[in-house]
Write a sequence for this structure.
């Protein structure tokens, strides 16, 4: 009975969330077309709604830990769920995301992403994708802010592992910016591939910065170690049993 109730509430949450996204997208659209500020206001408003309604409809509480960066920095983040996107977006003042190129052609969402200064990347063409990514950043099209990149390139379900890609290091080296890693356990409560939402405390945690000066090997090893270690700790804190996955 309890599981059935969770399913019903999860479906209600997902549906109302989609409706609110559409309505806000349409209402803010003229302002977003005229000004990046309009796009940012719309997306911040939607993220706030989605996080707030998740607490009251499906019992997902949210918490941001660590020192949230406010300057021009690189933010390599663990990605498990759409929820961690919204939590990071709401937390930092000027977020810009490295995103899938295909999203540019999504109705309404594509325009908002473009106006926010997000950087589209074509998958499967790593060399060309990195060059295009750097060109966008260097051209000034991407305003200063917190540039969020997912080192594993996609959402990674809880208990699974995917290799870290070199993109974060290339941006770290070429932009000269400090990197602020982010860990999360959000996938435990808002998992990939299902509408079911599970009550609990979803956390994103901003970790110790990686200052300029690291070479590629040092940077990549440190980045993966700190993100994976802290994300695993957050998941264990929330009740995840890594031994159950290994069995």
């Amino acid at each position: 009975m309890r599981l059935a109730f969770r399913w019903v509430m999860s479906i209600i949450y997902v549906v109302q969330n989609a409706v609110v996204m559409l309505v806000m997208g349409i209402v803010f659209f003229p302002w977003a077309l005229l000004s990046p500020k309009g796009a940012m206001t719309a997306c911040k408003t939607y993220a706030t709604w989605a996080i707030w309604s998740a607490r009251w409809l499906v019992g997902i509480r949210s918490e941001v830990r660590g020192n949230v960066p406010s300057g021009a920095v690189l933010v390599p983040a663990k990605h498990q769920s759409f929820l961690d996107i919204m939590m990071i977006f709401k937390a930092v003042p000027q977020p810009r995301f490295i995103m899938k190129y295909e999203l540019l052609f999504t109705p309404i969402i594509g325009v908002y992403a473009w106006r926010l200064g997000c950087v589209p990347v074509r998958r499967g063409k790593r060399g060309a994708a990195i060059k295009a990514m750097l060109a966008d950043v260097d051209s000034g099209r991407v305003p200063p802010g917190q540039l969020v990149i997912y080192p594993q390139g996609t959402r990674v379900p809880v208990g699974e592992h995917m290799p870290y890609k070199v993109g974060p290091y290339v941006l770290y080296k070429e932009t000269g910016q400090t990197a602020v890693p982010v860990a999360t356990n959000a996938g435990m409560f808002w998992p990939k591939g299902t509408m079911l939402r599970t009550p609990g405390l979803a956390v994103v945690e901003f970790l110790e910065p990686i200052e300029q000066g690291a070479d590629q090997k040092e940077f990549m090893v440190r980045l993966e170690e700190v993100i994976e270690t802290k994300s695993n700790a957050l998941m264990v804190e929330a009740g995840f049993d890594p031994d159950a996955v290994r069995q």
In short: The mean pLDDT is 89. The radius of gyration is 18 Å. Strands lie at 60-65, 73-76, 95-100, 119-121, 146-149, 182-184, 200-206.
